[in-house]
Amino acid sequence: MFIPTNLVDYLIYSAEKTPNKIAVMFEDKNISYSEIHELTNRAANALIECGLKRGDRVVLCLDNRLETIFLFWAVLKANAIVSVINPNIQLEKLIYIIKDSGAKFLFVKDKTVFDELSKVQSNLESVMLINNEHSNNYETLLQHSNDQLPLRKTIDIDLAAIVYTSGSTSVPKGVMLSQRNMLTASASIREYLQLRQEDIIISALPLSFDYGLYQMILTFQTGATLLLEKDFTWPIQFIKKIAEKKATVLPGVPTLFSILANHLPKLSYDLSSIRCVTNTGAALLQRHVSIIQALFPTAHIYSMYGLTECKRCTYLPPADIHKKIDSVGIAIPNTEMWIVDDENKKLNPHEFGQLVIRGATVMQGYWNKPIESERALRDGLLPGEKVLYTGDYGYLDDQGYFYFSGRMDETIKRFGEKVSLKEIERTVYLFPLVNEVAVIDVPDELTGSAIIVFVSTSKRNQELINEILSHCKSKLPKTHWPHDIQLLNELPKNINGKFDKQLLKQHYLQRQ
């Protein structure tokens, strides 16, 4: 019986069981499991020869490309710890991550960044440049003479990855994930998605985004095929690729589904091969479900919710997609969850409070941040056990389905009452002509917080603002009424594709 104790076991098992199976399709290249296994053995041995030791940190500041995948597995085979960072990150944040993690090796795609980092004092022993024009000494890693699997020194409680949060409102935090954390999460997700060896998972999600990274991990775990796209710049090409390659699994976000819907009427591609569509990162509303069902009428739709600190919290079974569309579902397999109040008292169904997650998916803490770690990880049911206080608020119904209301930092006090900004967003979303919604709060002497609503829409005039405001007043209590509504062509997003609310707040305050 195959019992993995290290993420690398997924690659080894698939390479031994189906050596000639295509593991990754990227641009004009098809790479088999045996090829990836051999190449990553060579790279791992080269990294070890260059001085990489057990527990050292390696930062991959790279986009979606084969090299990112090769290096991810090579670092793990070398018994080190990997961090995949979006190459569009601000230079100062990248420098912070390098110094915070104490990284020994760094791989970057941007020549300017490469040159700037040469001036920075850090623990870095090697910086390698990888892009279409340059690859300095990276190629020598894959050409190393030793193609044998390096001696494994790590066990399942050792760290596999440090996943840095986007740091939109503060410095990035490094979420420490052990081999066991990531093995448990991928096993649970694979179970409820019912992934198969014959699946072709198409993903344009960044590998630096844990939702995108896990598409690759799940593929290797299942022995399936990953159809990796560089990005989602060309939607028509993406649609064409689904049809040509007969992709079966599509992980996405609401923005992607909306863009697909805008382009598909101009085309006539057969997308019936898609049997499974997943969503996380932003709320899946009824309008998005309708779009997905129109595009992929036979696909099972999985609305999911999670956070980096435990990968995934809940999923909504496809059979409940219409019955409980406002819910983000039940606890994923092999995890447990409950709701507590501000005094840490466990609450009953339909009582509003903070979500707590228990299970082997729960992170080990934040790298170099003991105070933040202590705040998030508290004593569990067993001696020495830690459970995750998510900072996410909502309630459970009688059947254990979670209804998400918002983050702790998105729940404000107004007129002395708690107000969920997410609840306002959901209400505005229901209004016709609204494409995207982001809600922020700014200081206000009278109420404590003024609520500002940003709407992406093609129609922008005072009449629409008045109509949206009337809609909010008819659906929400007075404590939730917007102070101001701003109409934009498009809402700004951060490198993970989420609304950049900090930027919206800065721009709003500057104009006041």
Description:
- The structure is a single chain.
- This protein has 512 residues and is of the alpha/beta class.
- Among the domains are: 175 residues, Rossmann fold (3-Layer(aba) Sandwich); 97 residues, GMP Synthetase, Chain A, domain 3 (2-Layer Sandwich), CATH 3.30.300.
- The protein is built from 15 helices and 26 strands.
- The strands form seven sheets. A five-stranded mixed sheet has the order 11-12-13-14-15, sandwiched between helices.
- Strand 22 and strand 23 form a beta hairpin.
Main features:
512 residues; 32% helix; 26 strands; five-stranded mixed beta sheet; alpha/beta; five-stranded antiparallel beta sheet
How many extended strands?
26
Largest sheet: 5 strands, mixed
Global outline: globular
Question: DSSP helix count?
Answer: 15
In short:
The protein has 512 residues and is α/β, with parallel strands linked by helices. It is built from 15 helices and 26 strands.
Blueprint (SSEs and pairs):
Layout: H1 8-17, E1 22-26, E2 29-32, H2 33-49, E3 57-61, H3 66-77, E4 81-85, H4 91-101, E5 105-108, H5 111-117, E6 126-129, H6 138-142, E7 159-164, E8 174-178, H7 179-193, E9 200-203, H8 210-222, E10 225-228, H9 235-245, E11 249-252, H10 254-263, E12 276-279, H11 286-295, E13 300-305, E14 314-316, E15 330-331, E16 335-340, E17 353-359, E18 365-366, H12 370-376, E19 377-379, E20 386-396, E21 402-407, E22 411-414, E23 417-420, H13 421-429, E24 436-444, E25 448-456, H14 462-475, E26 484-488, H15 501-511
Parallel strand pairs: 1-10, 3-4, 3-5, 5-6, 9-10, 11-12, 12-13, 25-26
Antiparallel strand pairs: 1-2, 7-8, 8-18, 13-14, 14-15, 16-17, 17-20, 19-20, 20-21, 22-23, 24-25
Helix pairs in contact: 1-2, 1-8, 2-3, 7-8, 10-11
